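Handout, section B. The chain below has 196 residues.
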Amino acid sequence: MRILILFSALFLFAGISLNAQSDTLIDTRDGKSYVTVQIGQQIWMAENLKFKTEKYSYIFANKAENGEKYGRLYRWEAASEACPAGWHLPTDKEWQILEKELGMTETELVKENDWRGKDQATKLMSDTSINFNMLLGGYRNPPSNYYLMGMQSFFWTATDNGAHGWYRQMRDGSGQIFRRTRPKSWGMSIRCVKDE
């Protein structure tokens, strides 16, 4: 028992999470590196993707410093193909697996067009809890309007619904996660998940 307490104290002192394991991914297409984190059985990028696709990816307000900090905003069709080899845009179901791993109940998981959960977004935003480091990168609405950087985050999933795609939304000061669809022409951040 004393050994377990000492071991746990050492991990807490070192700032290491017992629930997540970090690593690094190098995107060979542009040489950019990304911290990755294992949460449950999934391995996620712990940073927003910055890869410039051939078309339909944008930097918030066209300012390079925004792209460096928050990554790019992708239309759904670009997001679906933007992840590096061996990685993919997570489906709505894969986001639900992550949310469940963070303690969201089954009842909350399936809600649509509503704020769900209790503190899952807080865990994703924290740089010490699970090391997901979710940033509030805002979104892009055509033709070229940018909104809510530093206040909210929007992440595409790979699950489509006709002319719309499913996404996740989180906001500063709230632990809940919004789940709904938006037109595929919107620009949102993406996080990639490692292929199984």
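Note. The helical segments are 2-14, 64-70, 76-82, 92-101, 106-109, 120-125. Compare this with the example in section A.
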